[in-house]
Specification:
Number of strands: 12
Bound molecules: nicotinamide-adenine-dinucleotide
Number of domains: 2
Number of helices: 12
Strand content: 15-25%
Distance between the termini: 20 Å
Shape: globular
Structural class: alpha/beta
Low-confidence stretches: none
CATH architecture of the largest domain: 3-Layer(aba) Sandwich
CATH topology of the largest domain: Isopropylmalate Dehydrogenase
Oligomer: single chain
Length: about 375
């Protein structure tokens, strides 16, 4: 029997609530598909600031280093918002953990089951068969990481802030490879999104992507779109895209838009992958829901655990090669939510059944 060794970092807000349910589903999948779990919990984000004085403690990093994958909740909340920006959970935990493990590729499926089209703010006639796209976002470059990044006071007393957007060829090529792999497993179509009409980094992005695809994947239909148009097209006709492929900040924004048109942030999982392989020869990755800590509903037991459960499925698929178990979990989630089990965020007028009850519904279909 195989043992899956991974780190569990539930984080803050709804993180621990949805993580508990997701681990129950994973344990049950283990019984069915003959694997056991060896995981260790560690603090990250606000709770780590409270317990260790820093959002990404060395002890947490060591537990992650000794693992084959990281199962992540989400971090942040009002309690830590008055800290200096550099010390706040998202900046002091999320960005460093991505950097520490060189997790440069974020894979975020945007999936809306046809039965749930009423949960999307888009008109039903625009998405009669639901939505099925995937966003590949570069995660460790661009304006979030580029230097210089600073705020200073000018001679006239005004404050001035600087962020720097930087990309180099190798960073664009390695993420192009992920977009190609993803497209090959889907519809062989990639739309690369940039702002090449005004940004130097985008001019380079478009040039490198075009050359890389021509050389390594000529069979893939590659198109290019400016980010402002991509934001409009996502709201107009999302299924025109198969793989949406873009740099860090544009991906951050577009993938959240993708979340809302798919009806619920609580349904969307993501994988962050890097160059590093685990001891199984598979990608080391960090798996997390697309949403945040939802402070407005934390502690009420109504958060949707599906994104966390689907993150478990992605971890099984990418980092442990447990494809059958991953598909079984994805199918169980689909059956649970399309047979009337809905949590608050996708209810739109229905009574939320609650986090634990949703977990039980998923378990009943596993
Ligand atoms: P959010 O994603 O936490 O919440 C946005 C809305 O979506 C809220 O109304 C929330 O109730 C709802 N929502 C999100 N996940 C849900 C779920 N599973 N079930 C039901 N409803 C859900 O975004 P926000 O309000 O902008 O941020 C709140 C905190 O989370 C902030 O501190 C922010 O920094 C942090 N955050 C963390 C991450 C991360 O850890 N990766 C990502 C985004 C935001």
């Amino acid at each position: 029997m195989k043992t899956l060794k991974f780190a569990v970092l539930p984080g803050d807000g709804i993180g621990p609530e949805v993580m508990e349910v997701a681990l129950d589903v994973l344990k049950s999948a283990g019984e069915k598909f003959s694997f056991t779990l060896d995981y260790e919990n560690a603090d990250i984000g606000g709770i780590a600031i409270d317990n260790h004085g820093t959002a990404f403690p060395d002890s947490t990093k060591q537990i992650c280093e000794a693992s084959e994958a990281i199962l992540f909740g989400s971090v942040g909340g009002p309690k830590w918002e008055s800290l200096p920006p550099k010390e706040q959970p998202e900046r002091a935990a999320l960005l460093p953990i991505r950097k520490a493990f060189s997790l440069y590729a974020n894979v975020r499926p945007g999936l809306l089951y046809p039965e749930l089209t009423d949960a999307s703010p888009l008109k039903k006639e625009r998405i009669p068969n639901g939505i099925d796209i995937v966003c590949i976002r570069e995660l460790t470059g661009g304006i979030y990481f580029g230097q210089p990044k600073s705020t200073c006071t000018l001679e006239n007393g005004e404050e001035q802030a600087i962020d720097t957007m930087v990309y180099k060829t190798s960073e664009i090529e390695r993420i192009s490879e992920v977009a190609i792999d993803t497209a090959r497993a889907r519809g062989n179509r990639v739309c690369s999104v940039d702002k090449a009409n005004v940004l130097e980094t985008s001019v380079l992005w478009r040039k490198v992507v075009t050359a890389y695809f021509a050389k390594h994947a000529p069979e893939i239909e590659l198109s290019h779109m400016y980010v402002d148009n991509a934001a409009m097209q996502l709201a107009r006709d999302p299924n025109q895209f198969d793989v949406l492929f873009t740099e860090n900040m544009f991906g951050d924004i577009l993938s959240d838009e993708m979340g809302v048109i798919c009806g619920s942030l609580g349904m969307l999982a993501s994988a962050s992958l890097g160059a590093q392989k685990n001891s199984l020869g598979l990608p080391f990755g960090l798996y997390e829901p697309s949403g945040g800590t939802a402070p407005d509903i934390a502690g009420q037991g109504i958060a949707n655990p599906c994104a966390q459960i689907l993150s478990v499925a992605m971890m099984l698929r990418y980092s442990f090669g447990q494809l059958e178990a991953a598909t079984a979990i994805e199918t169980a989630v689909e059956k649970a939510v399309t047979s009337g089990n809905r949590t608050g965020d996708i209810a739109f007028g229905l009574d939320p059944i609650g986090t634990k009850a949703m977990g039980e519904a998923v378990l009943s279909y596993l």
